[in-house]
Amino acid sequence: MMSITISNLKAWYGNSEVLKDINVDFKPRTVTAIVGPSGCGKTTLLRSINRTAELAHSYRCGGDIRLDNESIFQQKNVDNIRRRIGMVLQTPVALPLSIKENVIFGTRYHGGKNKTELNALAEKCLKQAGLWTEVEHKLNCPASELSGGQKQRLSIARVLAVEPEVLLLDEPCSSLDPASTQIIEGLLVDLAKELTVILVTHNLFQAKRVAAETIFMMDGRVIEQGLTAKLFDQPQQPETAAFFNGLTW
């Protein structure tokens, strides 16, 4: 079971400090939501966890992030870290390939599976993503034909195909209709039975529906972390209370 521990993490883009002394733990097999105002560092925190923030030349960081008690910064194979800690972006991504080839794209890159294994893997991951019954008869059709909600679930299936231990999601439902959002929320709860799931969301109702734990961030800092129900009902920090009280129940 993979846990993530972040210690004294600071991060900058150029001279701008966007993460300030972050210390948090993410429990295994749990959905943890990260909430807070726009620009508070939520996405940078996610991208730091799977080392994609480093793709920006102006990014630098200090402190440590440990995956199952091993520092991700001590791993020479960065691609392996990004495989183990998969990420789903806010905008659904469908590669200019068939539905099946979208799912197995990353697995082909890493190699090691034959055609039969790849076909079985595509079916397994599409089922995990709740998409199989909708696409099983058109696996070789272009993925561009899918709806927005289907493309987002396809993105999740593609990440699952490389067998990650942690799943990061950055506002995965922000552009989706309520029906698609409900499907993906149910999917995240199911996936947390096997994976560590970390969800950035602006939707406080979504955090309450799917997350066992919630982290509130503001101005690059973690203000408060706790069980979701307790954090919403009895926040301990005035900044948390003020933010949540802006929500109309």
Describe the structure.
By secondary structure, this protein is α/β, with parallel strands linked by helices. 37% of the residues lie in helices and 26% in strands. It has ten helices and ten strands. The protein has helices at residues 42-49, 78-84, 99-110, 115-128, 132-135, 148-160, 178-191, 204-210, 228-233, 238-244; strands at residues 4-13, 16-26, 31-35, 59-67, 70-71, 85-88, 166-170, 196-200, 213-218, 221-227. A six-stranded mixed beta sheet has the order 6-7-8-3-9-10, sandwiched between helices. The protein has a four-stranded antiparallel beta sheet with strand order 2-1-4-5, covered by helices on one side. α7 links the parallel β7 and β8. α3 (99-110) runs parallel beside α6 and α4 crosses α6 (148-160). The chain is globular and about 55 Å long.
Structure summary, number of beta strands: 10
- Enumerate the spans where pLDDT stays under 50 for 5 or more consecutive residues: none
| SSE pattern | EEEHEEHEHHHHEHEHEEHH
Q: How many angstroms does the end-to-end distance come to? A: 36 Å
Average pLDDT, rounded to a whole number, is 92
Q: Which structural class matches the secondary elements?
A: alpha/beta
Helix content: 25-40%
* Annotation field: number of helices: 10
The profile of the biggest β sheet is:
6 strands, mixed
